[in-house]
Design brief:
This protein is an alpha+beta fold and 289 residues long. Helix content is 45%, strand content 21%. The chain is built from ten helices and eight strands.
């Protein structure tokens, strides 16, 4: 088996915190398909129309027409194939993320948000065209503020549409959802250093039982479970997509003892890290599916 170096990391241009690329009937993938890669930025994929498949953290997903797919910073992405694609890609750095939207972009899983048919899609296209004009046009003292405000509007729309598609969830402005959003942002920053639920309760200035209850209302899972899920997601990414040793993966996700990591991973995934890596690569969930 060929060596698998650490994942390629896509970055924004040094002089840009935001990129907008439109496509009109484009095609991607096929024989020249890119290898899996991480993003050092957040990415929004708006498909007004088209078909195809891509992978996020190894899971194959269909292109969903009439929807925006969010790929959070740090996730592993690969576009396998796409035809007749109409829409746009928006890429932006962490500095442009409003605090209220950080939960939506937290790199735990892919989110595909349906855009209401009709006027909403036209407004979305118009906003993206305006945002792109600001990004590629001549710069002045107001360019950065305009880009930030337009992006914030886009993210607020996505939150509205997401909440609208999840009517069974608690109220979008309710205290449980607000606390979950704060927790998601803290977890992304701290999961590799802090695995204990008490750390997050202390950081958010919330009693530990109250935090766990609020998270369970929103997600069905308590604080410790969510922390473990995030740690093991990162471990699976590194095992599947890189050639780091099990010990190196253990260290990267905050375990000093590789044996303890292996036991924890087996409890969570059902098999030991090396066995899990071998099985997923054999099944084609690798850098060369």
């Amino acid at each position: 088996m060929p060596d698998r170096p650490d994942l390629p990391l896509d970055r924004l241009a040094p002089d840009r915190a935001l990129e907008v690329v439109t496509f009109d009937g484009g095609a991607v993938g096929g024989p020249r398909m890119r290898e899996p890669h991480r993003h050092d930025y957040h990415e929004l994929l708006w498909f007004r129309d088209g078909r195809g498949t891509h992978r996020v953290d190894g899971a194959q997903l269909p292109v969903v027409a009439g929807a925006v797919t969010i790929i959070g910073r740090g996730q592993v992405h690969q576009f396998e194939e796409g035809r007749g694609l109409h829409g746009a890609v928006v890429r932006f750095g962490e500095d442009l993320v409003p605090p209220s939207a950080s939960w939506l972009l937290a790199a735990r899983q892919e989110r595909t948000i349906p855009v209401p048919a009709g006027a909403a899609t036209d407004r979305l296209d118009a906003l993206l065209a305006t945002l792109r004009a600001e990004v590629v046009g001549p710069r002045d003292a107001r360019s950065g503020a305009l880009e930030a405000h337009l992006l914030a509007t886009l993210l607020l729309w996505l939150e509205r549409w997401y909440d609208g598609a999840h009517a069974e969830r608690p109220e979008p402005d309710g205290p449980e959802v607000a606390l979950h959003r704060r927790f998601a942002a803290a977890l992304e920053e701290d999961f590799a250093r802090h695995h204990d639920a008490a750390h997050y309760a202390q950081r958010l200035a919330v009693p530990a039982p109250a935090l766990s209850r609020a998270l369970a209302v929103v997600t069905g899972r308590g604080t410790k479970e969510l922390v473990t899920d995030r740690v093991m997601l990162e471990a699976r990414r590194l095992l599947r997509f890189t050639d780091r040793s099990v010990g190196e993966v253990a260290h990267a996700v905050g375990f000093d003892d590789p044996l303890y990591f292996s036991r924890a991973f087996k409890r969570h995934a059902g098999s030991a890290p090396q066995a899990w890596r071998d099985a997923t690569r054999h099944a084609g969930m690798s850098m060369h599916p």
